[in-house]
Each structure stands twice: as structure tokens, then as C-alpha cells.
Amino acid sequence: MKQPTxxxxxxxxxxxxxxxxxAGCAKKPVAQAPPPAPQAAPQSAPSTPAPSPAPRAAAQxxxxxxxxxxxxxxxxxxxxxxxxxxxxxxxxxxxYNQHTLRPDAMKALQADSSxxxxxxxxxxxxxxxxxxxxxxxxxxxxxxxxxDARAKAAKDYLVQVGISNSQLAVVSYGKDKPVCDEHxxxxxxxxxxxxxxxxxx
Length: 201
What we know:
It contains six helices and four strands; from the N terminus they run H-H-E-H-H-E-H-E-H-E.
């Protein structure tokens, strides 16, 4: 039998080595590439939550001021009627050194005072002023006090008629505003009086 040549041996050796290497590679598990990492879902910018409405504080009851009287004033026609009534209510006269209402003084105050009351009661801020007057005799201080007492006597009577006390003001002029300048009893009697006027509003 013919012996193989050196070259043939080398080829056989290389072939055998290749077969063995291939066999070894076949047994070796093929490394697989790791699966791609899952892509994170694109995150939108974090939305700022809408601020929840602040709880409404319970309405605190406000302290109520004392109810002020209505500020309604009589219109021109009503004022004219009041002026007519005041002109018809005669001055009430007094005896010398007295502040007590005489029967004739009460009669003078009573005339038309009911209608006057019915009108001004509708206008709580509308006021009347009762003026007290005296004759020239006596000191200034004495007559101021006497005129005030006379005005208050008339006011008390009108309150009894039904006119609100808060709508009646009093003022004393003493002997400073006489309606007569003679120096006798007839003139003095005319000056001892009360007179009612509408207050400035």
C-alpha cells in the first residue's frame, strides 16, 4: 500500500482540526443579542393640577347698625301744605310769668294739628321748631328760661296729639324777638307766646 505524503498529512490534520472546531462550535449555544430595552413611553410635561378652589368661608354676619330713620323729605307741594297749616295754627299765648297752657292756647294748638301730624309722620326726618317768647319785663336769663318752659309745654301738648317727640325741637328767644314794641299790657300779651316753624332740613 502507498504511504501518504507529507502534504497529504498536513491537509488531513487541518481538515480534522476544522471538523473538530466545527463540531465544538455546533455544540456551543449561539449567544443571542439581548432584546432591546422597552422604550419608555414619551412622557408629557407634568401637568400642573388645577388648584382646587379654596373653600369659601362662611359669610360672617355683619353687625347691623341701628336702623336709621328714612331720609325722605316732603316734596314742594307737601311743604306748601305744611306751611299753610302752620300759618293757620295760631300762636298760643300765656299769662304773665306763666308757662302753663291756657284753654285758648290749647285750642290754638289743636287747630289743624291732626292733619299736620298725619303729614309729617310720613317723613321721620322732617322737624318742626317750637319757639318760646316773652315780654320785655324781667332779666335776659329769666326770660330765656321762661321762653324755654313755654316751648316745652307746647311740645308736650303736640306729642299728646300724636306728633313724634323726635320731630319737635324747642328754642327760646326770651324777649329778643318781640312782635310788638309798645310798653303796655296789650303789647306784652302779644309777646308772651309760642310760635311753630318748619325747621331747616
